[in-house]
Amino acid sequence: MQIFWLFIIITLIKAEDHQFKYPPTKPSIQPFLDDAYIPGAAIMVVKSNEVIYEEGIGYHSPPISEPRQPIDPLTSIFVLGSISKTFIVVAAMQMVELNRLNLDTDINEYLPSLMKIFHPQYPNISITTRHLLTHTSGIGTNFEEELTHYLPGDSFTQTNLGNVIQKYLSNEKSWLPIPPGNKTFYSNMGACLAAFIVERVAGASFEHYVQDKILKPLDIDEKKGGYRLSNFQDNKKNLVDHYIFNASWLEVYEKLAQQLNASRVKFLAT
């Protein structure tokens, strides 16, 4: 396991303005969170299989909220967001180790016969799983289409991942004007497609695969980590809510929240 990148990022934020202490203390880390308008963070440093530093700093919510619950690195539950892509890569490489997946084979070899995916501007250049995992597939960002995929609660479980991907990629606006393998461009849908391929070759839903093959061996059950809010119904008080500081994004997310009736999303504007 690697040192959490969050720890590194925090230490680099306006580092010239603060004197950092070793080992770090809560008072020495707090200014870095304040500079980045982060209410709180759970920080852990791991070396091999040994935890060498663990600390909770700040709170679940910003100063305007009352009461404020302190961050506890052992009990606070965060939404992983794009860190979940790490699980996609691990799952894919497990399939490689089992000789079920070749990173450099055309992805259509692993997709349903009626689901063919290729770059509309470069149809003769194969897209591979390696491209998906390294964000070099040529799949871009279609924010308007992505917004239609955000659903409240656990409603996403009622959708078919393959259908969502196919609909997204059938829109030419979802592709970059560059061929696969040419340039790195961060792609949420590319990662989703890699997860779908894992589903296909593993013969199980990606959610269940992660629980059984990655989390369970680490002694993490579905009450401690999972893809459904319903997993944490008995532990809502430890869920860390979402907040937005940048006012320029406030209108966009308010509209999204109204569309989805996402009662758990809170907004903080300057």
Would you give an account of this structure?
It is a single chain. The chain is built from nine helices and two strands, in the order ααββααααααα. By secondary structure, it is mainly α. The radius of gyration is 20 Å and the shape is globular. The two termini are 37 Å apart.
Kindly, what is the distance between the CA atoms of the first and last residues, rounded to a whole number of angstroms?
A: 37 Å
Strand order of the largest sheet: 1-2
Mean pLDDT: 83
Query: How many beta-strand elements?
Result: 2
Strand content: 5-15%
What order do the helices and strands come in, and which of them pair?
Elements: H1 5-12, H2 26-35, E1 40-47, E2 50-58, H3 85-97, H4 129-133, H5 143-147, H6 161-169, H7 188-202, H8 206-215, H9 250-260
Helix pairs in contact: 3-7, 3-8, 6-7
Search tags:
AmpC-like, two-stranded antiparallel sheet, 6% strand, Beta-lactamase, 270 residues, mainly alpha
Summed up, what is this model?
The chain is mainly alpha-helical and 270 residues long.
